[in-house]
Amino acid sequence: MTSTEAAASALQDHATLWSVGEARASDVVDAACDALVAGLDTPGLRILAACTRAEADYDVHDLLPAALDELGLTFYSLASDAGQEAAARALARRMLAGELTPGEFTFRIHRRYGHGLPLTERLAELDDEYDVLEYGDRTVDQVDAEIRAEARRLAGDPHVPAEPTETPS
After folding, report:
1. CB 36 within 8 A of CB 45
2. Number of neighbouring beta carbons within 10 Å of residue 56
3. pLDDT tens-digit profile of 39-88?
4. Are 49 and 32 in contact (CB under 8 A)?
5. Which of 42, 70, 98 represents a domain boundary (last residue)?
6. Which value, in Å, is the radius of gyration of the alpha carbons in the chain?
7. Judgement on whether residues 20 and 66 belong to the same structural domain of the protein
8. Is the dihedral of CA 46, 77, 61, 19 positive or negative?
9. What is the value of pTM for the model shown?
10. Is 148 inside any structural domain?
């Protein structure tokens, strides 16, 4: 991935997480600045990147949709199904990048979506497993490993099948 592609992806993730309340407006502005430095340049992106931290909470809501549109990125409206799924995928990428522990990742997913988002149902179940580890035969390392595999699936790692595959009998 080129630096501009990585910057666009990071901006998309920050915007998505902001739209569902998982990131601050100033994080979006920082990602816009990083995108400019990486070589992306549109009028809307420049205006967004020029926001101060104090202005961000007030202005990002109005400026972000146009900036994303100019870059061919998607603005997810609050509470849309597509936005919730995109946010779960962005959190998975953050966990895989080491920004969240497996426990923090599942806690955030479980707290935000409970058991109601089919895409993240297994992660909510794994978060529940942390609470009963002392009564079972699984270890934290085993649960963490399954969470990492689930995160790779969500993040779109091509080496992890989206659906379980059957082994031949």
Report:
1. yes
2. 21
3. 999 999 999 999 998 999 999 999 999 999 999 999 998 778 899 999 99
4. yes
5. 70
6. 18
7. yes
8. negative
9. 0.84
10. yes
Question: In this predicted structure, what is the pLDDT of residue 136?
Answer: 86
Report, as ranges of residue numbers, the positions in the chain whose pLDDT lies below 70.
1, 157-169
**Do 100 and 149 have their domain in common?**
yes
CA distances from 60 to 24, 47, 84, 129 (A): 10, 10, 19, 38
Q: Which residues of 25-46 are buried (b: 16+ CB within 10 A; e: fewer)?
A: bbbbbbbbbbbbebebebebbe
> Hunting for tokens 């979006």 — which residue is that?
28
Provide the domain count of the chain: 2
57 and 88 part of one domain: no
CB 32 within 8 A of CB 11: yes
Q: Say yes or no: 13 and 66 in one domain.
A: yes
Same domain, 12 and 64: yes
Q: Give me the amino acid identity at 22.
A: E
Could you tell me if residue 162 is inside a domain? no
Report which DSSP code applies to 22.
S
Structural domain harbouring 38:
3-70
Say which residues have a Cβ less than 8 Å from residue 153's Cβ, sequence separation at least 6: 160, 161, 162
